[in-house]
């Protein structure tokens, strides 16, 4: 599996309960890669760029550009590209690279910010959220991105919406952008989300399931490469 734009390794950490895997996390930000490596229990994994014949749980971290991935054609059974494409000016070339390294029969999972919650963020903070360094440079329409991916020979499988509890947090941040670092409301909401992610109590899982179709911050789509 390739986690393209892995950041600090959230998806790599999610593999903790998987008995057998070989995963690569790729990102431009070296500090994030260092944090990802620090967050992985290296006693449970083999760290390698190429898996050995007996490795059952193996990972690697690579500083790489999404427009020129350092992998051979058809290298991966699965590619995750989560909340990445909205940061890349030439996202079409990134899609070309994803298609190139994905094996025939492989699966692509891609997520981007959902259009209307993202639009609210841009309107609430046009000079902050919409113009922050390294921030989002476009608002995707899911139907357009789906067509972009399908044109490359991937078959759409399904979609869902995620992070319903996160949209109000980002709206609150944008509303208070210039003073968000000192805002008690923003701080309390952040602590609530961190608690929810770590503990996953039943009540918030139910709220997340109910809110995501209505106001989920992200749209997630799955595709399969047929040839």
CATH class: Alpha Beta
Count of separate structural domains: 1
What shape does the CA trace take?
A: globular
Order of helices and strands: EHEHEEEHEHHEHHHE
Task: Walk me through the structure.
With 227 residues, the protein is α/β, with parallel strands linked by helices. It is 37% helix and 24% strand. α3 (91-101) links the parallel β5 and β6 (102-113). The model has no long low-confidence stretch (mean pLDDT 92).
Q: What's the SSE blueprint?
A:
Layout: E1 2-4, H1 10-13, E2 21-27, H2 30-39, E3 46-47, E4 57-63, E5 76-82, H3 91-101, E6 102-113, H4 115-124, H5 142-150, E7 154-162, H6 166-175, H7 184-199, H8 202-215, E8 218-225
Question: Summary?
Answer:
The protein is built from 8 helices and 8 strands, in the order E-H-E-H-E-E-E-H-E-H-H-E-H-H-H-E.
Annotation keywords:
227 residues; Rossmann fold; 8 strands
